[in-house]
Amino acid sequence: MNDTILQVNNLEVSFFTHVGEVRAVRDVTFSVEKGEILGIVGESGSGKSTVLLAIMSLLQHPGKIKAGEILFENEDLAKKSNREMQHIRGRKISMIFQDPMSSLNPVFTVGNQIAETIITHEHVSRSEANKRVLELLELVRIPSAKTRINSYPHEFSGGMRQRAMIALALACSPQMLLADEPTTALDVTIQAQMMDLLRDIRKETNTTIILVTHDLGVVSEMCDRVQVMYGGRLMEEAACRDIFDKPGHPYTKGLLRSIPNVKKGSRERLKPIDGSPPDLITPFDGCPFAFRCPHTMNLCMDSCSREWEIGEMHRCACHLCNPEVKALLDERGNE
Amino acid sequence: MENTERQITQKDIERVHFTNKESQDITRPSLTYWQDVKRRFLKNKLAILGSVIIILMVLFALFGYLLTSQNYYRQDLTMTNLPPRLECYYLDDETLLYVNSEYSLYTLDNDGTVRERLEPAEENQMMREKTYEVNGQKVVLNYKGAAQAAKARKQGDMQLANSIDTFTLDIGGKTPEMQKVWNKTYRLGTDYLGRDMLARLVYGARISILVALIATFAQFCIGVLYGGVAGYLGGRVDNIMMRIVDIISTVPLTLYVVLLMVVMGPGIKTIIIALGSVYWVDMARQVRGQVLNIKQQEFVLAARTIGASAKRIMLRHLIPNSMSTIIVTLTMNIPSAIFTESFLSFIGLGISAPAASWGTLASDALGGLRSYPYQLLLPSLCICLTVLGFNFLGDGLRDALDPKLRK
Amino acid sequence: MTKYILKRCVSIIVTLFLVCTITFIMMKAVPGGPFTTEKNLPQNVLDALEAKYHLTDPLWKQYVDYVKGAATFDFGPSFKKDGVMVSDMLAQSFPVSAKLGLVALIIVILLGIPFGILAALKQNKLPDYLATIFATLGIAIPTFVLGTLILYVFGSRLGWIPTHGLDSWKCYIGPSISLAGFSLAYVLRLTRSSMLGVCGQDYIRTARAKGLPERTVIFKHALKNALIPVVTYIGPMTAGIMTGSFVTEKIFAIPGMGKFYVEAINNRDYTVIMGTTMFYAAIAAVMILAVDIAYACLDPRIKFQD
Question: Is the domain of B395 the same as that of B366?
């Protein structure tokens, strides 16, 4: 843990809606190493995107960080004012959003939107900024960048727009890149290109990347480490290989069973996880996965497990990983 | 990291079993579309307020005549411009005196029932003094102040003008006690021809609401048909039809209405024809957009695949699914019809006498505005309230029918 | 862009031609109108009409002459006022109305847009509630009611503003506010809702994520998008101010086009009605063209439609 770039401690995010408080992120703790690609996996509504928005302080009303700290270079981003955050956003941490169709402003040229970031943070002249934009567009492999710099977003295809978004995010060579499902809205072939691009960028610039996705295929290809989120909580955290080889949490296991396996031509049936995602409004102290878990115990209904170390750098928040529970279960099994 | 220190017991590790249904049904119950619409509508306080205003206005138009014994067309030139609230003076316990703005003396019962206009026994033009004989008492009315006030007003000194008493009343050498009473005969006063304002307002409400409703219905028929056909046929036909709409709406629609009214002459029928035949453009656009949108959806394709006729697709699929757009546009068009009708009446192109709409009432009041503002305020208030009601209702319906349309 | 504007120009010329034809047909249809031969008019007016419109010519020739006249802003003599040319009346009264209309337009834009933005930024706070109440009431009050109320309260009762004429800047207050009222409320509402809609868009989040100052996010990224629907409303708004001027000029006794138009309507001065209608249509069409151009400048996507 010598080169930690981001440390999130006990983060709690809630949306205070008119129907009640929605606890989108609950007691989330994790750290990110410099230069790694961390994957955060989970289904819709698991709070994974909210974590990214909280890091950027971009939570929109009625969302709020209720507790916890977000330490970036030993400074707590959660305590920073909006004005202070402006110097960090786009310069030290930048973000790529899910839908490239709507994430670029339709009434400004792509070049203008990228140059704007550079001018804001580095106070360079417009021509200097334009030169940088050209380099960036070439870096993200936009063909004939010279003419494309003056195009409007609607003249770009979806993949091109996402490339432009990546160029925008890289404009000020940030230390950390937050990617919120960057490939979900794209075709499969374009997805692969985008992933190649992100990997190359990491190689060339050593940028730390947090990649939020619900696509386990993407995770297995890209990430060094993976975190699994469910119902606003962190369920499991491990090196990429370990998640696939020896998943600890019943939810992770379920997730893995529900992706098709084409490799071996296997005829195995896919097993969906029964039930639907939890209702985050009704207060519930137990494990959010309890209602869908095949191993639910009374304990799971009362409390959420702490994270147990179950391997090297492998942590899992499930009561089944508790040695005491294990012992008791063994005892019962022996009877 | 809650409860980590707790001792774990055998009971804790007991398995919990859910039936399949339980794990499926943890989400809240879902509502059908119309239940949801109803719930959203009833939750919207302004929409309810709007509906209440509209219902009250309709009740007023239907049954308002019960509130007055007068009718809307009877003129009484001795009873002109009497306000709803009268500044009266006691003659004796039974009789009140009222001086109108032309310095004529009226007698009233002490409950506010207007008896009659009195003829002066003697009038001194030089001294601006009228002498009356009422119930055997001598009443002297002096209106010298009026000229001074008018002079001050002309010089632009409104404060002075408003501070001068325009007349003095003298009963047997004493200044009588002043008492404000409500006009009981004409509850909302009379107009410049001595017609009962309340009766005319009720009549105006009927005309205004009727004209707005029928004209909107006509717009609805033409607009839905035109927009529906354009959207349904699509392609070239749609292109040409919408070009025509574009061309029509380049010119302010009111100009067409004015031209039509000039050609056909004023009257209720022509106003309905003019409004109905011109203002369908907006409806046509909305319906076309909606139909184009729905047409591309799978269920219409499916209907076509199983060989449903064009008429059936139109009636069973396109129109019902455009209903929310149509209802909202319809509700929003009623206020503009009311506006246009009153506007036309105001510039002298609308309803002709003795019939009246709120617009004609307001127009009639313009001449005597300074002295009898109530004649303008009452019909104006009716127009504003009704329009406000329909606006609230329209907003509420839009939010309820299509939350995505919410602005 | 040039092609787009040319296209719009052609469509506007077609429109005006159409209006011209409609007025011609309508005036032909009016019993006792200028284009019918049986009527009781002073001989000199009859002569002037005959000289102008050659009523004995075949119908198609009358029509061609009429269109030619309209194209050169020659609408013939007044039907009721002896020896007065319609075009002279227009030339005299148009500047008066135009000035007033322009003042109203400026009021709408300078007050409506900024307060709409303010309301959107302070959503669900006091300024928003005030703006919403104002806008709700504003679109429920017809121009003639607002005009007469202003005249009565501030003119007759308080004496703060003159009750007629356009002699000093003070005279503009009453009529321009009553002209602007409805549109002001509408623009306020439109700007507010449009701004709110835009602020929830993904690209605004992107702009914030870039680290732009809030000022730039709102006044550059959000505003330019939010103004698009507002700009499209300026066309209908011009029409609204135009028709509003009919009543406002009547109420405040201002010698503008609107007042003459209403007078002509009441006197059935057909040639004036026709000429003024054509003129109004032309102004509206030109305004719509201007709006289209502004729209194309604001929204780059427009060039690729049609």
Answer: yes
B221, B90: one domain: no
ipTM of this complex prediction, to 2 decimal places: 0.84
From A284's Cα to the closest Cα of chain B, the distance in A is: 12
CB contact (8 A) between residue A106 and residue C300: yes
Element (H, E) at C206: helix C202-209
C91: three-class secondary structure by DSSP: helix
What is the pTM (predicted TM-score) of this model? 0.84
Whether B152 maps to a domain, the answer reads yes
Residues B254-276: tens digit of each pLDDT: 888 888 888 887 788 888 888 88
> Which residues in chain C have Cβ-Cβ distances shorter than 8 Å to A154?
300-301, 304
CATH code, residues C93-298:
1.10.3720.10
Q: Please tell me whether residues B217 and B357 are part of one structural domain.
A: yes
| HSE value, Cβ hemisphere, 13 Å, CA-based, for A12 | 10
Residue A230: strand pairing partners: A233
- B201 and B149 inside one domain: no
Sign of torsion, CA C94 C97 C99 C103? negative
Contact C145 B362 (CB under 8 A): yes
User: Cα(A57)–Cα(B371) distance, rounded to whole angstroms?
Assistant: 63
Same domain? For B118 and B158 the reply is yes
Contacting subunits of B (3+ beta carbon pairs below 8 A): A, C
Chains adjacent to A (≥3 CB pairs closer than 8 angstroms): B, C
Q: What is the DSSP letter of A48?
A: H
Same domain for B165 and B207, yes or no, is: no
The total number of residues shown for chain C amounts to 306
What is the per-residue pLDDT across A250-284, written as a single tens digit (0 to 9) for each?
A: 889 888 887 776 665 566 677 777 777 777 777 67
Write the DSSP assignment of A217-233 as a string of letters: HHHHHH-SEEEEEETTE
| Residue at which a domain ends, from B125, B155, B182 | B182
Domain of B102?
85-182
Those residues whose C-beta lies under 8 Å from the C-beta of residue B394, and which sit 6 or more positions away, are B50, B328, B331, B332, B335
Look at residue B70 and tell me if it is in a domain.
no
Contacts with B14 from chain A: Cβ below 8 Å: 297-298
The reply to whether B133 falls in a domain is: yes
Number of domains composing chain B:
2
∠ CA C43-C49-C52 to the nearest 5 degrees?
Answer: 140
Specify the CATH number for the domain of residue B250: 1.10.3720.10
Work out the end-to-end distance of chain C between its first and last CA atoms, rounded to an integer number of angstroms: 12
| Percent of chain B whose predicted confidence (pLDDT) is above 70 | 93
Among B16, B18, B22, beta carbon nearest to A298: B16
